[in-house]
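Quick one - inputs below.
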Amino acid sequence: MEKLSGSIFKSHLFKTHLSSIGRTIIICVPTIITIFPFYWMLIISLKVHKDALTIPPKFIFTPTISNYITVLIKMDFLRGILNSIIICSITIVISVFIGILAAYSISRFRFIGRQTILYSMLFTRVFPPISMVIPYYLTIRSIGLYDTYLCMVLAYLSMNIPLVTWLIKSYIDSLPKEIEHCAMVDGCSRLRTIISITLPLIAPGIVATAIFSLFVSWNNFVFPLILSSKRAKMLPLYIAEYVGETGIEWPSIMAASIIALIPVIVFTYVVQHRLVQGISAGAVKG
Amino acid sequence: MSIDKKRTPYLLLAPAVLTLLVTIGYPIGYNLYISLFDWRMLESTTPINFVGLDNYVNFFRNPDMLHSFFITIEYTILGVALEFFLGLILALILFEKTRGFKVFRLLLLVPIMATPLVIGLIWKLMWHAEFGIINYFLSFFGQSKTAWLAHPNTAFIAIVIVEVWKYTSFIFLIIYAGLQVLPSDPYEAATIDGATYWNKLFRITLPLIRGPMLVAVVFRMIFTFRVFDQIYALTRGGPSDATMVMSLLIYREGFAQWRPGSGAAMSVILIMITLFFALLLIKAIYKKSEL
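Output:
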């Protein structure tokens, strides 16, 4: 749809008597409040231990990476990073594959039960993870899957498949059906059409979807907290456990937190234009 | 050909449906089942007793659990209302051309995506009585040191502020996106008729963006009602249960008290509330046969 954001329209809409500069100043306030905690986290992670928490705070100091080294070497943190990467990657691959199939079906076919599927997808999309953990825990304990990659991946699939299906459905919806029809009239099978026409056309959407799927698993804390303890322990759980250990090592925790946030910030930058759609998938049409 | 065509959509859906049946359908069923039992895992001698709906009845009778239920409602309403008003005002102001908007937008996006646990931890430090930067800033205004997370009232305010800080930009972005696609005709007509800014705002703009506003609010309510990570990091439900929202209570019931039956009953209640909001969302998004 063409966006009606021409200057004529805007001048009719909101004459707030504010200049462009005035608005920039206004937006600075929430932005500073938004960014400050991250800035503060970074500052503390770069300070030597004795300076880190002094009040009044030292704004001028010689930065050190010693906290990062402590975290990465002493605290077995690398294993957490590795676990997070492996579990998230497996989840993404499986949920994108399954999600493409489901999304194509919902988007391109009209069949009995389609409405029900759509509604259940929306419900599962917003399903609260905390209300699954008691059954999960009891079951995986009894079948011996506790603290394994498999149980983590299964748990994450429950959150990722509905999200991925909704997102990819919206991308397929936005493609005109005629493109596929032409290919099929020319003798392509449906499978061939999907692989060589549909998927390449929505490839950027699939990449964005994979990134949203990554956010969901990477940020999740409930599942690692309850379903893992050692072998499949992921990043957020490592960070949470530092807090519990003898006295709170704030500089190290902040360093670990920054490490956990790096992929989040990088990928937020990558998908910023699709973010509204991504975070509200299932809630906002197309 | 025709038979094949009828089967195809179901075959394509099968992997997704099967996975979700196992990963979501099964826990729902299991929750319903064990919520009917009084099961105390710490007392290994006590058998598991069938108690019917007692766990549910108990939830609404036990003052601690009821307290948690109301705390969660309060948290949700207060948090989402503040997010909504701040987000709406911001969207309305910034809708006109703003210099450098893209940079600001990117910066505003970061807290939405940031790991909630990490957010909880940095705020825990910022609220700290001794080392907290917030007390330091407040000291300029003559405020004496407050142990924010140690007192029931201030702890509750503190967790709501973190919530609002994290998700105001979510509502802002959805409403902002809604404003972008408004039709221009009503505004032209209104301008010719000499309508003021406020006339246009209340008579045209707000009614027209009702859809996106409703969706943003309901969506936020679903996710606020189940909040866990931030509060786990900030207070773990304390002090004296002042921030013990339902998710944390489920966690405590299931994995500290080891009473899965009672925890499962609460899980079912949480699922029902989510289902209610999800239906509201469906009603808000889809009118008639648009799917």
